[in-house]
Design brief:
The longest helix has 22 residues. By secondary structure, the chain is α/β, with parallel strands linked by helices. It has two domains: about 140 residues, Aspartate Aminotransferase, domain 1 (Alpha-Beta Complex), CATH 3.90.1150; about 240 residues, 3-Layer(aba) Sandwich (Aspartate Aminotransferase, domain 2), CATH 3.40.640.
């Protein structure tokens, strides 16, 4: 016997497209990881600690120096006053942090407002915790919600809301008025916000990431989740941060201890070093990503693609219908990887219900030559599609 919530799930679209990329020798603009190996000093610190430092179980809640560094980072960059001893827990990646939040807080029958398109781990984890998702559908090009949408989604049974900001796959950074509106609904309904903010350092064009926890009434009712992997381009490290008021942290940390218990100490020490010695990384890294975004967007536009705005994350979207392509995003994505040698993500896969879109997500966190080759191959896929 198997639990149907997980047993009936298909292979994640990210694994599917990456597997096809390997099978066909394709350029992978699908899964979100950089070509660059990450900051050398941080990687060197991890290597040094694993050879010369402590390699046994670290404290369950995380190394004190990392918890303190996380609180210090958010104080400097977002003006947050977090007590590292009672409000910061280190997890084995942001997905584990999400699982700890869902399993530790949701009770059977609780309604959970979720915005889609969405990270595909949300719904099975919410359902396994006994939660009932209430879906709000966001649409291109701006991917925003309004009061009427929230009035429909929130009910007397709403206990939680899950917010991803900046938004993957949309590449959107929510404006202050949208966040203030959501905070108003959370306070009115006494709902806890579980905020997936892993892209908080990857924003462009002078955009400012505003954490929901900083809005009026949200300090005691927000779980803020961050990711060292996204901050430093070290996605395989899987070091996440859970930040919340003490009453919430008590439940979160107790859940964490029975999920992974702890996270490799050398990686924790290296991330602490990185946060304490970041220099101008949090200016130069997003600036470099913005240049890559512009290079990819300009190349795609030259080839006849309609490019949607990208304000942050590793991702840029194209609208296939506006680009003259008549087939749905999934059909085009399969054509592109199998016959043109480039992997992408069809955004339709990131909606709960059967939802056909013409939006294709591309990873921009790649070297110039990779992006240029990706543009050439996508142009070939478009030509093949137009021929029928």
């Amino acid at each position: 016997m198997a639990n149907p919530i997980f047993a009936n799930l298909p292979t994640t679209v990210f694994e599917e497209m990456s597997g096809l990329a390997r099978e066909h020798g394709a350029i992978n603009l699908g899964q979100g990881f950089p070509d660059d190996p990450g900051p050398e000093a941080i990687r060197a610190k991890a290597a040094d600690v694993v050879m010369n430092g402590y390699n046994q179980y670290p404290p369950m809640a995380g190394l004190p120096e990392l918890r303190e560094a996380v609180a210090g980072h958010y104080a400097r960059t977002q003006g947050l006053d977090l007590d590292w001893k009672s409000e910061v827990t280190i997890t084995s990646g942001a997905t584990e942090a999400l699982a700890a939040a869902f399993f530790g807080l949701i009770q059977p029958g609780d309604e959970v407002v979720v915005f889609q398109p969405l990270y595909d781990a949300y719904l099975p984890l919410i359902r396994r915790a006994g939660g009932v998702p209430r879906l709000v559908k966001l649409s291109p090009p701006h991917w925003r919600f309004d009061r009427a949408m929230l009035e429909t989604a929130f009910t007397a049974k709403t206990r939680f809301v899950v917010l991803n900001n900046p938004i993957n796959p949309a590449g959107a950074v929510l404006p202050q008025e949208d966040l203030a509106l959501l905070a108003e609904f959370c306070v009115r309904h006494d709902a806890v916000a579980i905020c997936d903010e892993v892209w908080e350092q990857v924003v462009f064009d002078g955009a400012v990431h505003r954490p929901l926890i900083a809005f009026p009434g949200m300090r005691e009712r927000t779980v803020k989740i961050g990711s060292a992997g996204k901050m430093f381009g070290l996605t395989g490290w899987k070091v996440g941060f859970l930040c919340a008021a003490p009453a919430l942290t008590h439940a979160l940390s107790r859940t964490h201890q029975f999920l992974t218990f702890t996270t490799p100490p050398n990686l924790q020490a290296a991330v602490a070093f990185g946060l304490q010695n970041s220099g101008d990384w949090f200016e130069t890294m997003p600036a470099a990503m913005q240049r890559s975004r512009d290079r990819l967007a300009e190349g795609l536009t030259r080839e006849g693609f309609a490019v949607l705005p990208s304000q942050g994350t590793y991702f840029l979207n194209v609208d296939l219908a506006a680009s003259g392509v008549s087939e749905p995003d999934r059909a085009f994505a399969l054509r592109a990887v199998k016959h043109a040698g480039v992997a992408t993500i069809p955004v339709s896969a990131l909606y709960e219900e059967e939802h056909v879109t013409t939006i294709l997500r591309l990873c921009l966190a790649k070297k110039d030559e990779t992006l240029d080759a990706g543009v050439t191959r996508l142009a070939k896929a478009r030509e093949l599609s137009l021929r029928g």
